[in-house]
Specification:
The complex is a heterodimer of chains A (407) and B (373).
Chain A lengths: L6 H17 L1 E2 L6 H5 L4 H15 L17 H11 L2 E2 L7 H12 L2 H13 L4 E4 L15 E5 L2 E12 L6 E7 L10 E7 L5 E6 L8 E12 L3 E2 L5 H12 L11 H10 L1 E2 L2 E2 L4 H29 L9 H21 L17 H8 L10 H12 L22
Parallel strand pairs in A: 3-6
Antiparallel strand pairs in A: 1-2, 4-5, 5-9, 6-7, 7-10, 8-9, 11-12
Chain B lengths: L6 H17 L2 H9 L7 H9 L18 H14 L5 H15 L2 H13 L4 E4 L15 E3 L2 E10 L6 E7 L8 E7 L4 E5 L8 E10 L1 E3 L5 H37 L1 E2 L2 E2 L4 H30 L4 H26 L11 H14 L3 H17 L1
Parallel strand pairs in B: 1-4
Antiparallel strand pairs in B: 2-3, 3-7, 4-5, 5-8, 6-7, 9-10
Classes of the chains: A alpha+beta (407), B alpha+beta (373).
Bound molecules: flavin-adenine dinucleotide.
Flavin-adenine dinucleotide sits at the interface of chains A and B.
């Protein structure tokens, strides 16, 4: 075992660090990019940053050269990510890099790959993910949005929900039901679609924090040429699985507050008997979060090692999101508790670390729901990693239209 | 032993529940949440006053109903369940209790009748921003009957008529702390935003503001401990009510929401989650009942009982509110659904009298003290 970089990796890391130092501001403890610039201004800043990265060869490090990537290794991507977290930079917006590129690489026509992948890497075009529906979230196979063949086109009718960034997106990946008489997972067909197509209406949904980053998307007689189908008719589930597998491969990004932030708060804050960091109850919690944060990072490195040997990452990747999302909520809520009677104050000007704990308390619940809920991820670990018998399924071997539904 | 409320008290609870279901439905709470100009629901407050709720534990000679703390606990649970957006907790559990405990005859005559009618609103100022208030760091000072310094956040400080303030009148130790009554007319006050906008909070700035001693000079710290012990029990009942409401919401949703062709409540991940919420709520309820009995009878271990009620109730409500969101999936994360109103209230209630960590510490200290005695 060797936790130091190989000479080639060390050289790559030095290159990355040099470039980041020259092009971005180093992050001080507790600093948050979003708090500095505000949500509305984030998109152009993100696009500018992605374009810069693209030109320097750091956007799409593992993406093949012919599609504008670097053609590098997973390890290099991990090195880049490890270095970038030390700088104050805007995150990538939308589903393009994490979800769309891996799906296009497997299922898109050559000309589409050549066109779309570099656009995504530069963030010229933003993509969103039209998967979830009002009655189909965890149970994505339950979607009802209909696609019907009409000559060389498909006609789409239905409703999607929870679509992050739909209001900003140029394009979307879309799963539809092409055959309601087939068994649930067999009658699905997958497309990409231009979000400016006639018949697409986007309505923002306000979330707990008061912001509206996700949306309802209504599709009424939207026409999609058959050339925009990804995978075969009726094979949409397989394509969707490719997308979702990538959703659960952790990017290593750790939205604040994480261990470093609560550790910093504990050092700075005076409580009844001195600095919080000296209090045994606080130390106990800090130790718990440290082993979780560090454990997730190191587990990710084990996964990368396996990947660099040509193995595909398995469902054990679910650990990362499961642990990190809950940890973030716990840290946010405990940070407030540590601030005691003043812990409810929301002012960025006067609350420690620009109120990152308070704001995250209102945002963190989503981490445990989006991209596979805590419960679904535990089921995956139980069934696919540990090989426990599967939950009895009542929604198999019947035509989709005969399945029971609720609210 | 009879470890339950009396028939009269159960009747009071049924009436309160019915009244609040009508007068404080989620829509009323949401109005206060969404209208930043609205600090509380004045109409609801007026109707509660008409029922005499603010005077529940105030003796008849001062215009109250002369009932006991247990009766107030019954109301607190229902107010918590309905998230009633009013200054009840500040005015009744804190300011009124402070006057009952430490007020001179004149002070009681002056304030209690109006408090009982809901015509005067009182509040309680201990916190000085982020951190734990201690005798060493309290920086609001009193000299020659005038206060200087800043208190924040003060629940209902922007709508109250007077405030009970802990200030430093001598050395920076327990004996140097005193309580004061301050008329808020003319005091510089500004609303501040907290995690729960359905409960208004303020920053109060005293600038040589004239103040009247409440209780003896140098007794402030001891009085605060007594006031907070009693308030902890009332808060615990509000928290138990909130936890129960969160649980009810989650159970209802779990029965009706389908995934993979089955109600989500049929999955053990959800079933066990809801069972755990139920268990925590019931344990909190039992600890709260004991606390109610202890403050009503003045039991010697009242401080232990209060801290146990507080810790159990903070844990139960925070947990139930958090997992109610989780049970609702994406819906739970929307502004439109009510889950977040409970999540916000759970957090602010568990901070307002000092955080969970500190109450756990206090519980064990009180146990040590009891065992040493
Ligand atoms: C912030 C945010 C952004 C999102 N962005 C997007 C997006 O861009 N595109 C998109 O398509 N979707 C998006 N989603 C949707 C997300 O994928 C779904 O919300 C998620 O899959 C859960 O589905 P649901 O909301 O329908 O909840 P449900 O599936 O109804 O779940 C409700 C509860 O039941 C539990 N449950 C369900 N099935 C089981 C089971 N078998 N065993 C045990 N428990 C179970 C769940 O864990 C949950 O606690 C987003 C969601 C959020 C919160």
């Amino acid at each position: 075992m060797d936790f130091t970089d190989t000479p080639e990796d060390a050289e790559f890391r030095a290159e990355v660090r040099g470039w980041l130092t020259a092009n971005a501001e180093e992050k001080k403890p507790g600093a948050i990019y979003k708090a500095k610039y505000g949500e509305a201004a984030l998109i152009p800043l993100s696009q500018e940053w992605q374009t810069k990265k693209f030109k320097a060869g750091f956007s799409g490090i593992t993406t093949p050269l012919e599609y504008g990537g670097r053609g590098g290794t997973q390890i290099q991507q991990a090195i880049y990510d490890q270095e970038e977290v030390n700088f104050l930079v805007p995150r990538h917006i939308g589903s393009g890099i994490p979800l769309v590129i891996p799906t296009l690489l497997v299922y898109a026509k050559e000309e589409d790959k050549k066109q779309f992948i570099p656009e995504i890497l530069r963030s010229d075009k933003l993509w969103c993910q039209l998967f979830s529906e009002p009655s189909a979230g965890s149970d994505l196979g339950g979607i009802r949005t209909r696609s019907e063949r009409d000559g060389d086109d498909w006609v789409i009718n239905g409703q999607k929900i929870w679509t992050s960034n739909a209001q900003h997106a140029d394009l979307a990946i879309l799963v539809t039901r092409s055959d309601p008489d087939a068994e649930k997972h067999k009658g699905l067909t997958y497309f990409y679609v231009d979000m400016k197509s006639p018949g697409i209406e986007v309505r923002p949904i306000k979330q707990i924090s008061g912001m509206a980053n996700f949306n309802e998307v209504f599709l009424t007689d939207v026409r999609i040429p058959d050339s925009q189908r990804l995978g075969e008719e009726g094979e949409g589930w397989r394509v969707a699985i490719t997308t979702l597998m990538n959703e659960r491969v952790s990017s290593g990004a750790r939205p604040a507050p994480d261990f470093e932030d609560i550790f910093g708060l504990a050092r700075d804050l005076e409580i009844e008997d001195g600095p919080a960091i000296a209090n045994a109850a606080v130390r106990e919690k800090l130790a718990h979060w440290y082993i979780q944060a560090r454990g997730v990072d190191l587990t990710r490195m084990r996964t990368l090692t396996a990947m660099s040997r040509g193995q595909t990452p398995g469902p054990e990747n679910s650990i990362s999101k499961l642990v990190s999302a809950f940890k973030r909520q716990e840290i946010a809520l405990f940070g407030m508790d540590l601030m005691d009677m003043g812990g409810g104050l929301m002012s960025r000007e006067t609350t420690p670390m620009r109120a990152v704990f308070q704001e995250a308390a209102l945002e963190a619940p989503s981490g445990r729901i989006a991209a596979g809920t805590d419960e679904i991820l535990r089921n995956i670990i139980g069934e696919r990693v540990l090989g426990l018998p599967r939950e009895v399924r009542v929604d198999k071997d019947k035509p989709f239209r005969d399945l029971p539904t609720g609210v | 032993m009879n470890f339950d409320f009396s028939d009269d008290q159960r009747m009071l609870r049924d009436q309160a529940q019915k009244f609040l279901t009508d007068q404080s439905p989620p829509r009323v709470v949401r109005d206060v949440l969404e209208d930043s100009a609205k600090a509380y629901d004045e109409k609801l407050w007026g109707e509660m006053a008409a029922l005499g709720w603010m005077g529940t534990a105030i003796p008849e000679e001062y215009g109250g109903a002369g009932l006991c703390p247990e009766d107030l606990c019954v109301l607190a649970e229902e107010l918590g369940r309905s998230l009633a957006p009013t200054p009840f907790s500040s005015s009744v559990y804190l300011a009124t209790e402070a006057l009952l405990l430490a007020g001179s005859e004149d002070q009681k005559q002056k304030y209690l009748p109006d408090l009982a009618m809901g015509e005067t609103i009182g509040c309680f100022a201990l916190a000085e921003g982020v951190g734990v208030p201690t005798p060493k760091n309290i920086s609001v000072t009193a000299s020659n009957g005038a206060l200087s310094g800043v208190k924040e956040p003060v629940a209902d400080g922007d709508v109250a008529n007077f405030v009970v303030v802990l200030a430093r009148s001598g050395a920076a130790d327990e004996r140097g702390m005193s309580l004061y009554l301050v008329d808020l007319d003319g005091v510089d006050r500004e609303s501040v935003e907290t995690i729960d906008p359905t409960r208004s909070h303020a920053r109060l700035t005293f600038n040589g503001t004239s103040a009247e001693l409440l209780g003896a000079e140098g007794e402030g710290w001891d009085l605060v401990q007594k006031i907070i012990d009693r308030a902890a029990v009332y808060f615990a009942f509000e928290q138990v009510g909130g936890a129960q409401a969160s649980l009810d919401m989650a159970v209802d949703y779990a029965k009706n929401r389908f995934a993979f062709g089955r109600p989500i409540g049929s999955y053990q991940a959800i079933k066990h989650k809801l069972a755990d919420m139920y268990i925590a709520t019931e344990l909190a309820r039992s600890n709260a009942y004991y606390g109610a009995w202890a403050i009503t009878t003045g039991a010697p271990d009242v401080s232990v009982a209060a801290a146990a009620a507080r810790v159990a109730a903070s844990e139960a409500f925070n947990h139930a509110a958090r997992e109610n969101i989780q049970t609702h999936g994406g819906m739970g994360f929307t502004w439109e659904f009510d889950c977040h109103m409970y999540y916000r209230r759970a957090k602010i209630l568990s901070l307002n009298l000092g955080g969970e960590r500190r109450w756990k510490d206090r519980l064990i200290s009180q146990l040590e003290a009891r065992n040493a005695a």
